[in-house]
């Protein structure tokens, strides 16, 4: 295990952000080796990351630079552990349905806490307006951006590495799996699928041109390289809409004591990147469909 490098745990170089390659992954791997040595499972590390991320969000409620800085440190560590759990799973082969559920909700719980904390902090000054702005930034923008960037990254990985290297799912397949599960025997997994099916349907609804070529793209080798040529330049945009750029924006807004600025940039800059990424990906799929 001592010979394992951080790059060995990448899903692919194209879907790894620069900051993750030089910071998050190498430190996460060090933690992974420690946790493996003491017998911790990926799920234990994921739960620890959830606790740290929620604690960070709570600290962002306070109008105190010191507490905000502590919260920033906790959120950075939570993100490192979010990388660590996946590295442990890939190194040891410890993958489970519960692990996928926990990994899927970890980031959501962090940011739900963060958005609520910022709105509560600004409520005395902004009133109900800050809740409306927070809802627009979180539900109207952040959720849609993260959902589509996750979808595009998994499409790219599916074409690049096949089904074993991607977590791309089909709502029809998930519905069939959900139908044949018992609530009594698979309570947690079936509850997760209930939510995840709707998440996947939302991804499919905004990618009509991709849906037209989906089956052909995964079975026809002549489409693979043209798709990857068009998809590779879009991966930096998809990566931008994941954690790091959003977190850095949050950190800066807290340090300069203008947390409302995070919401503003989420609604404007991040939405522009989302629209560009979406248009270019759908155009790529439309051209492939025509050809």
Short description:
The protein has 13 helices and no strands.
Describe, in plain words, how this protein is organized in 3D:
With 291 residues, the chain is mainly alpha-helical. The chain has 13 helices and no strands. The model has no long low-confidence stretch (mean pLDDT 91).
Poorly predicted regions are: none
Number of strand elements = 0
Report the helical percentage.
over 70%
Ends distance: 47 Å
Number of helices: 13
| Biggest sheet details | none
Topology as a string of helices (H) and strands (E)? HHHHHHHHHHHHH
Mean pLDDT score, rounded?
91
Question: What is the global morphology?
Answer: globular
As a percent range, the share of strand residues is: under 5%
SS content category: mainly alpha
Radius of gyration using CA atoms only: 20 Å
Reconstruct the topology from this structure.
Blueprint: H1 18-37, H2 42-59, H3 65-92, H4 97-126, H5 128-161, H6 171-179, H7 187-205, H8 208-219, H9 221-231, H10 235-240, H11 244-255, H12 260-267, H13 269-290
Key features of this structure:
mainly alpha, 13 helices, 79% helix, globular
């Amino acid at each position: 295990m001592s010979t394992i490098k951080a790059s060995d745990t990448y899903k692919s170089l194209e879907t790894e952000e620069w900051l993750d390659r030089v910071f998050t992954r190498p430190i996460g791997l060090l933690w992974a080796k420690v946790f493996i040595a003491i017998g911790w499972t990926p799920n234990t590390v994921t739960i620890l990351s959830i606790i740290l991320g929620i604690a960070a969000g709570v600290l962002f409620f306070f109008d105190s630079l010191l507490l905000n800085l502590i919260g920033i440190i906790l959120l950075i560590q939570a993100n490192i552990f979010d990388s660590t759990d996946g590295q442990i799973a890939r190194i040891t082969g410890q993958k489970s349905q519960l692990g996928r559920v926990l990994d899927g909700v970890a980031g959501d719980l962090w940011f739900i806490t963060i958005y609520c904390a910022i709105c509560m902090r600004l409520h005395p000054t902004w009133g109900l307006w800050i809740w409306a702005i927070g809802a627009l930034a979180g539900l109207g923008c952040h959720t849609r951006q993260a959902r589509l960037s996750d979808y595009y990254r998994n499409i790219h990985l599916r074409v690049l590495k096949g089904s074993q290297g991607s977590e791309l799912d089909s709502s029809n397949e998930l519905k069939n799996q959900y139908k044949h599960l018992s609530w009594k025997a698979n309570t947690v997994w079936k509850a997760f699928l209930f939510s995840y099916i709707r998440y996947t349907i939302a991804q499919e609804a905004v990618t009509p041109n991709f849906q037209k070529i989906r089956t052909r793209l995964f079975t026809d080798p002549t489409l693979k390289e043209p798709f990857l040529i068009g998809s590779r330049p879009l991966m930096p945009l998809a990566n931008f809409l994941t954690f790091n750029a959003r977190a850095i924006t949050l950190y800066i807004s807290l340090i300069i004591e203008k947390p409302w600025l995070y919401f503003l940039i989420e609604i404007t800059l991040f939405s522009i990147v989302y629209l560009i990424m979406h248009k270019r990906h759908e155009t790529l799929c439309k051209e492939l469909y025509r050809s």
